[in-house]
Amino acid sequence: MPNGLKKGWRDECGVFGVFLRNSAISNEAARDTYYGMYALQHRGQESAGIAVSDGREINLYKGMGLVSEVFTPELVQGLMGNIAVGHVRYSTTGSSHVINAQPLVFRYLRGMVALAHNGNLVNAVQLRNQLATFGSVFQSTSDTEIIVNLIARYGQDRLEDALVKCMLDIKGAYSLVVMTEDKLIGMRDPMAIRPLCLGASGDNHFLASESCALDTVGAKFVRDIRPGEVVVIDKDGVNSINTLATERTAHCIFEYIYLARPDSVIDGINVNRYRRLIGKQLARETNLDADIVIAVPDSGTSAALGYAEESGIRYEEGLIKNRYIGRTFIQPTQKMRDLGVRLKLNPVVEAVNGKRVIMVDDSIVRGTTSKQIVNMLREAGAAKVHMAVASPPTIQSCYYGIDTSHRDELIAAQMDVEGVRKFIGADSLHYLSMEGLYKSMKGDAASFCAACFDGSYPIPIEESAYMNHEKLQHLRGGC
After folding, report:
1. Do residues 406 and 378 lie in contact, with contact meaning Cβ atoms separated by under 8 Å?
2. SS3 string of 126-146?
3. CA-to-CA distance for 258 and 192, rounded, in angstroms?
4. How many Cα atoms within 13 Å fall on the side-chain side of residue 195?
5. Do 319 and 436 lie in a common domain?
6. Which helix (H) or strand (E) is 453 found in, with range?
7. Alpha-carbon dihedral angle through residues 67, 73, 78, 84, given to the nearest 10 degrees
8. Whether residues 189 and 280 fall in one domain
9. Rounded distance, CA 224 to CA 419, Å?
10. In the chain, how many domains are there?
11. Is the same domain home to 191 and 116?
12. Please, what sign has the CA dihedral across residues 99, 100, 105, 106?
């Protein structure tokens, strides 16, 4: 959720790429990338960048802030080229600096490269130490720079072959969009944890974290990039290198529950439809007696609508979100987060006063935000507040490219359901079951990563990641 309303779940970035077959040099690629990044703004609100190639060299502009804050129309107009790569980023505490903003642009043996990364390398600490031992120099704290150094290490190979070799070294979740002076490349990790898709408009091709960005620029969705696939787009068209595909996929289930935009389709699953279905399943599992169903906007809305439809209880807009609060209110202290909730959400007194309310949200992380919202509803006159959560209890941290709290800060890891209910002050609290989570999901449970709910990590986490969570956070995220 943009602007820090929900502290705890934040995807760390979105990536976008354009290859225009038209040889005429214009700002069209940069303009499409700008709009594509705008559509992916929910995936990162701290920095934004665009790199463009005119066939001879790569030019880059990036800065701190939202896409609309970093790029003026004049800036976009001046970014000339027929290939472009864009990136929006949210960083972890301590690494909020323009030097970590992406794309990263560098020169190596074969020329210039721009690289944008969504995900997280679980062996980042080990790789960084190994590379530094052999003389690599790092300017940022992003693990994306590790990939840059590995590409340079394999500089005698074509870029796509160097990327295949990188795939043997790096472990974790990653979707990459990479650009040279004359080609655009997409790459997805062998378990396809983070999303990446291919689109087309005539002879022009696009890469994006989510299909909603393709819709924004008028491109048609072609397909998702396959697990372990490297896609090369150049003047000859689209070519694919399939490598290192594993026996199973591990698509991030939280993309569907919260992170992705509802109008996106990821790996064959319509996000909005899935959220409606789990809302219906939640209603079947809870069977609550109430007057109205409301959502915590925006991520709880689809599930709340599904809940209302299944239960027959009327849906109302009980909480209104202020969409015009600036980024000034993103602060790391609990006091400022509490203020941020009241600035961004306000109860509709006429809707909730005297009513037994079912409040549907996507998750509970620390519990502090839920506690404040429950309190606001009571102050607005709600007779009862039942909280229904469209996911199971969050009991583990994510190491695959989502910024989550440490396990010690996850309320469901420290308390049972009754303890959480008492903390947030609700009259009742109901989580979706693990069985219910998968019941409406296309494919079997083994196709998804739900480690935040069950602790079953599909890619083994280096012991140091558990021993030194803060150090991993400092290097995480490519983004």
Report:
1. no
2. HHHHHHHHCCCCCCCCCCHHH
3. 18
4. 32
5. yes
6. helix 451-454
7. 40
8. no
9. 42
10. 2
11. yes
12. positive
pTM, 2 dp: 0.90
CA-based radius of gyration for the chain: 22
231 and 282 share one domain: no
SS3 at position 474: helix
Q: Decide: 244 and 273 in contact? Cβ < 8 Å.
A: no
Same domain, yes or no: 309 and 228? no
**From 96-105, 331-340, 440-449, 470-479, the region with the lowest mean pLDDT:** 470-479
Does a structural domain hold residue 475? no
C-alpha pair distances (Å), 100 with each of 142, 184, 324: 6, 22, 27
Sign of CA dihedral 43, 47, 48, 49: negative
Tell me what the mean pLDDT of segment 123-140 comes to.
86
Active-site residue, 449 included:
no
Q: Is there a domain that residue 194 lies in? A: yes
Q: Which of 13, 212, 252, 452 is catalytic?
A: 13
Q: Band of the pLDDT at 405, cuts 50, 70, 90?
A: low
Between CA 148 and CA 103 the distance in angstroms is 11
Domain that includes residue 137, residue range? 2-250
Question: What are the phi and psi torsion angles at 346 (to 5°)?
Answer: -140, 130
Same domain for 312 and 415? yes
